[in-house]
Amino acid sequence: MFERTWTVRFSDTDPFAIAHYPRIVDALHETSDMFLEEIGYPFWDLATDHGFGLPLVEMSFEFEEPVEAGDDVRVTLTPDPGTRSVRFDYEAYVDDTLLFSGYEQRVCAEKGGGAIEIPADLRAEFVAHADGDV
Fold first, then answer.
1. Domain with 89 in it: what CATH number?
2. 121: domain range?
């Protein structure tokens, strides 16, 4: 599992100080970006250095509580790798209160081509973080 803190800024919220849906999507994308960078596969290097990408094919999340301005939100990401795709499962908390949970589904694809198998070394990183071995 990967974990990071997202501090919700006033600019992330509506007039009622509740976080805008698109800002939450940005926060989740930023979390997966930070995770891939930490394991040595930053998004910006995938195509040029490795010849593949991880485009987003599906995303969903459900709210339990509002995300408010000033919250320090603990966002967790747990990868669930398949053969040709990976699902990033998210949970977001303030203290011990679950605010929302959801996922991103990403496919491993060659540039201009179709889905390919996730390279073994990247898949090993996903598995290690899924099992909590890191």
1. 3.10.129.10
2. 2-131
DSSP string across 65-101: S--BTT-EEEEEEEEEE-SSEEEEEEEEEETTEEEEE
pLDDT of 134: 65
**Contact, 6 vs 75, CB < 8 A?**
yes
**Exposure pattern of 34-57 as b/e (b: 16+ CB <10 Å)?**
ebbeebebeeeebeeeeebebeee
Q: In sequence order, what DSSP letters do the residues of 51-67 get, joined into one string?
A: SEE--EEEEEEEESS--
Q: Give the residues of the chain that fall short of pLDDT 50.
A: none
Under a CB-based contact definition with an 8 Å cutoff, are residues 77 and 38 in contact? Answer: no
How many structural domains compose the chain?
Answer: 1
